[in-house]
């Protein structure tokens, strides 16, 4: 162990720096939170901005956001040296700490925004299902209705109003949620790879990009599995919004990069060397070329050319998948990249990921699959299709 | 040594003896508070009366590593070469190239430094002992989500390991690399300025052991402390002043290549 750690150090590192502090689990944390924020913002397009083309994805987007939000704190919990003390962040928070305040933003977003909005939107379906079923199922749905079974026109109208109001609060909350994650990194002045006021906004736009891509893919995949027709108007619209968000995201990231290169401060030589060597594959190839430029090119094609439905579906599938990989690489490059160089700017270390260890690849994969399992359960409980709810 | 110093009168002997007995009594009564983790409550130690700082004279450091060994022994620091409360770096700077010094710290300087540079290569070599700077505006204190890392009224940055979550945010926030996660407790660990010693009127283990007095503990609130003269009489600097952390570890002879 000792020799392995030392063998991966090049140049000079402060001795306490040789061990990496934040593992792949901390890469997952901004990735999952970003997907939540992005999915929610897509959902709000329909609700607040009246983009009716994306209506078919509204409920799916909310459920996706919830599924990922439930999993988002798990990698943090697994990473802590003392997970049993994590509640202290709520009970005795240190108010100057960005990390402590994140707990409250998370809770606010989960309970006050997402759960409440989903409940309001599904209330009629829940009450109808409770009425039309028996036994355990009835009990479950009765519990989910929280004892409110008034579904008169008047009360549904109030639900709708309240839901819209919640979405309006939800948008800044989603911005806050992921902007905050960016701030946790961006406010560390000791680390020049992280320390930039652009970090929250770059995180935010990459979050929007990843969330839109995820919901677009989920919609297509779920439609195929359930043999429902894919609304091309819907995916075309989502594809267009994805392209716009991607262009803003890429512009911001390039602004950051160009600014760093032009300023070339004391950390530049060290970081530049890192990007050209240790981070070349994950940053230049996976994140920038295959994770950003290629999907932007793909997404621009339907805007410029007349393409068949089949071709467009293929393009969205490919662009969406590449986007999700690219944004994951972006999180990786921020979190892991920020720990590969010494704060003395004189040396580098390597991240050696375990497999079946507490912070290894296996738990990371499980945590990435878990939201889909939760989503599957949620979709079973609360079908996002309006036709089924009408039948119920 | 003059004769007068050994020619102690009976009266002086009694006085010194009396002081010794008295101070030992105070130390003993303070000890239970130190053990309870509340040294500031000890009758003999008023934390608000002190403001601790450290001076490190690079021109005096010979790179023997005594401080590193003393620190590890005194504070149960793991012996692996990537856990240190204090360590020593060797700088080797050729010509005017301050931006690319050669730096090494074999086992943190624990075993001293083997000679690896030819004596007449025209470069300058020197040792830089490092430790927690006990910053007055500590980034580590700022980021701790539960306040497990805090600044005592006497200016010492401390960790309550019974409260630390082990989130490692403070390790990331320290610009100087002074923190590590203790592999046994899974909580963060760092220099405590030998709080268990200084609250009893002793100096730190590293200062105690330093054969050339390159490291000295000082109390900035004590007007008679020699630290005031040291800071006044030398061109002192702190590490990474651009970080504006309010570092209280003052270096004499700090070269521009040191980071």
What general form of chain A does the structure show? globular
Outline of chain B, from the CA principal axes? Answer: globular
The span between the termini of chain A is: 60 Å
Strand order of the largest sheet of chain A: 1-2
Number of helices of chain B: 8
Number of strands of chain B: 11
Helix content of chain A: over 70%
SS summary, helix count of chain A: 16
Largest sheet of chain A: 2 strands, antiparallel
Question: What does the model show?
Answer:
The complex is a heterodimer of chains A (392) and B (259). Chain A has 392 residues and is mostly helical. Chain A is built from 16 helices and two strands. Chain A has helices spanning 2-7, 24-47, 58-71, 73-79, 88-91, 98-132, 135-144, 153-186, 199-225, 232-263, 268-276, 280-304, 309-335, 337-340, 361-381, 386-391, and strands spanning 10-11, 347-348. By secondary structure, chain B is an alpha+beta fold. Chain B has eight helices and eleven strands. Chain B has helices spanning 3-6, 10-35, 66-75, 139-143, 169-173, 195-198, 205-209, 227-233, and strands at 52-57, 86-94, 102-104, 123-131, 149-151, 157-159, 180-181, 188-189, 215-219, 236-237, 249-252. Chain B has a four-stranded mixed β-sheet with strand order 9-1-11-10, with helices on one face. Chain B has a three-stranded antiparallel β-sheet with strand order 3-2-4, with helices on one face. A two-stranded antiparallel ribbon of chain B has the order 5-6. The longest helix of chain B has 26 residues, at 10-35. Mean pLDDT of chain B is 91; it is low at 1-5. Chain A binds chain B through residues 2, 5-6, 12-19, 21-22, 76, 79-82, 85-86, 88-89, 92-94, 96-100, 103, 184, 188-191, 269, 338-339, 342-346, and chain B through 80-84, 87, 89, 99-105, 108, 130, 139, 142-147, 163-169, 171-181, 185-187, 243, 259.
């Amino acid at each position: 162990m000792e020799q392995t750690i030392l063998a991966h150090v090049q140049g000079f590192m402060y001795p306490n720096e040789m061990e990496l502090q934040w593992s792949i689990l901390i890469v997952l944390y901004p990735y999952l939170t970003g997907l939540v924020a992005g999915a929610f913002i897509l959902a709000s397009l329909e609700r607040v901005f009246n983009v009716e083309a994306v209506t078919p994805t509204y409920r799916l987007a909310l459920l996706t956001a919830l599924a990922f939000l439930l999993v988002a704190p798990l990698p943090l919990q697994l990473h802590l040296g003392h997970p049993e003390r994590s509640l202290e962040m709520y009970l005795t928070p240190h108010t100057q700490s960005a990390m402590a305040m994140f707990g409250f933003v998370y809770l606010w977003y989960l309970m006050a925004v997402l759960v409440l909005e989903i409940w309001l939107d599904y209330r009629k379906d829940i009450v109808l299902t409770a009425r039309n079923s028996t036994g355990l199922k009835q009990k479950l749905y009765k519990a989910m209705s929280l004892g409110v079974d008034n579904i008169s026109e008047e009360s549904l109208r109030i639900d709708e109003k309240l839901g819209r109001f919640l979405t309006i609060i939800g948008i800044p909350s989603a911005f806050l949620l992921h902007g905050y994650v960016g701030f946790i990194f961006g406010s560390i002045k000791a680390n020049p790879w992280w320390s930039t006021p652009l970090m929250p906004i770059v995180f935010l736009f990459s979050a929007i990009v990843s969330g839109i891509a995820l919901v677009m893919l989920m919609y297509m995949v779920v439609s195929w599995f359930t043999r429902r027709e894919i609304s091309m108007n819907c995916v075309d619209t989502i594809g267009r919004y994805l392209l716009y968000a991607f262009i803003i995201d890429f512009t911001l990231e390039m602004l950051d990069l160009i600014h760093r290169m032009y300023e070339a401060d004391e950390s530049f030589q060290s970081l530049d060397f890192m990007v050209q060597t240790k981070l070349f594959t994950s940053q230049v190839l996976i994140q920038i070329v295959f994770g950003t430029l290629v999907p932007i090119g793909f997404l621009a094609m339907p805007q410029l050319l007349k393409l068949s439905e089949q071709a467009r579906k293929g393009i969205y599938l490919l662009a969406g998948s590449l986007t999700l990989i690219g944004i994951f690489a972006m999180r990786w490059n921020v979190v892991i990249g920020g720990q590969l160089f010494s704060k003395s700017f004189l040396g580098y270390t390597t991240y050696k990921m375990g497999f079946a260890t507490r912070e290894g690849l296996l738990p990371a994969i499980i945590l990435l699959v878990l939201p889909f399992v939760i989503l599957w359960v949620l979709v079973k409980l609360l079908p996002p299709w309006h036709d089924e709810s009408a039948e119920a | 040594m003059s004769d007068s110093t050994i020619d102690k009168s009976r009266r002086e002997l009694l006085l010194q003896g009396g002081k010794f007995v008295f101070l030992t009594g105070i130390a003993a009564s303070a000890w239970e508070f130190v053990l309870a983790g509340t040294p500031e409550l000890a009758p003999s130690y008023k934390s608000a009366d002190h403001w601790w700082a450290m001076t490190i004279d690079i021109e005096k450091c010979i790179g023997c590593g005594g401080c590193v060994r003393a620190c590890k022994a005194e504070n149960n620091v793991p012996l692996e070469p990537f856990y240190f409360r204090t360590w020593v770096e060797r700088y080797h700077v050729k010509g005017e190239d301050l931006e690319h010094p050669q730096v090494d710290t074999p086992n943190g300087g624990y075993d001293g430094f083997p000679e690896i540079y030819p004596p007449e290569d025209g470069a300058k070599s020197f040792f830089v002992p490092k430790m927690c700077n006990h910053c007055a505006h500590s980034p580590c204190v700022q980021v701790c989500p539960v306040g497990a890392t805090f600044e005592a009224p006497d200016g010492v940055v401390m960790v309550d390991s019974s409260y630390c979550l082990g989130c490692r945010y403070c390790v990331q926030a320290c610009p100087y690399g002074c923190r590590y996660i203790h592999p046994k407790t899974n909580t963060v660990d760092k220099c405590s300025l030998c709080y268990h010693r200084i609250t009893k009127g002793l100096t730190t283990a590293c200062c105690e052991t330093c054969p050339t007095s390159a490291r000295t503990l000082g109390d900035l609130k004590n007007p008679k402390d020699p630290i005031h003269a040291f800071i006044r009489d030398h061109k002192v600097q702190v590490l990474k002043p651009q970080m504006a952390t309010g570092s209280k570890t003052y270096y004499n002879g700090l070269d521009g290549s040191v980071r």
